[in-house]
């Protein structure tokens, strides 16, 4: 098999939801207590650790947060049901260890870093968590280990945080220790694509690093696509999410155009989607949340600014995405003004504040900016989302969530439909109540108004 090609393991892992482990004899890394250590047990790290364990690996799962470890041990982490089954199996198995002790990393043949790489309020990359995680790994590196980053970052990050420091410490990368990058591809809350079934792109610091990393990934995934370098693997992830960001910005622009022409943008997108080639549907909304799309392209733009390389299309798309929650606030004011009312003193309820349906995840959720923006303009605001009892807003204030009964008693004059979770009850929204539908899919709303 040549170096730069897709490789496939002949026997696929068990599908998500099957709690039984595969016990592969002779598959364990010799000389180490664990086959894989996962650093960071968030929405990427924990499912990754569970997938490796379900595929038969001995797994060390590390997180520095005692609260996070307590949530995991009590099976209260936000996971797909299949991963909850895997977690319950893992917690009772001797080949799965939860720990907060980084010294245990010495006992693992491979170390995978899965920590967040957010941006700050100025849209500048915040690498503090990744730097700290890599430093902890480097302080305990053992000859023969494979080190892999999965956290999205700038091109060259793996070199800067792992390869260069290892070389300075006297290690020969590709002989003494192996370094690779393979970005995560998890879609939280989406059960259509099992973590094990999504192909993984991997690049190594040397051909042997790439080979070792491919073997590591094939312990649990069914398909690995190799690229020629660490940099190519890092750029692949940036392209994936920048592509999505640009197309979402375009969908938002078309939504505004359609609104101005009294057209339903969802009908237009559905019609365009009937073309079997050359078109991929993207949908408008109140903004973009989660860790990937609002953040990842800024790592690329930040790096390009340092090189004085212009990327006007990406820059404009990210500017539009950042401004979208403010457009929602403006639209609320427009709709109220059209009915002879203003925002000051008006009761506005935001329904659903998670960044996407059916996840308990507020990262970069546009709803937080919308709530803060409405409050700043004098509205009396509240929210309804049974995933969250309390939220902190960007202005530093906090807001308690309402129950459905409390929402009805709040008697909002306008409702912003932000996130429609499965089972969201809209029956109480009587025809006399204005509903601003930021999802553009509320065909069953009696008095819905598109964003």
From TrEMBL:
One of its GO terms (biological process) is polysaccharide biosynthetic process. InterPro entries: 6-PGluconate_DH-like_C_sf, NAD(P)-bd_dom_sf, UDP-Glc/GDP-Man, UDP-Glc/GDP-Man_DH_C, UDP-Glc/GDP-Man_DH_C_sf, UDP-Glc/GDP-Man_DH_dimer, UDP-Glc/GDP-Man_DH_N, UDP_ManNAc/GlcNAc_DH. Pfam families: UDPG_MGDP_dh, UDPG_MGDP_dh_C, UDPG_MGDP_dh_N. Keywords: NAD, Oxidoreductase. The keyword Cell inner membrane does not apply. GO terms for molecular function: NAD binding; oxidoreductase activity, acting on the CH-CH group of donors, NAD or NADP as acceptor; oxidoreductase activity, acting on the CH-OH group of donors, NAD or NADP as acceptor. Residues 349-442 form the UDP-glucose/GDP-mannose dehydrogenase C-terminal domain. The keyword Lipid metabolism does not apply. Belongs to the UDP-glucose/GDP-mannose dehydrogenase family. This is Nucleotide sugar dehydrogenase.
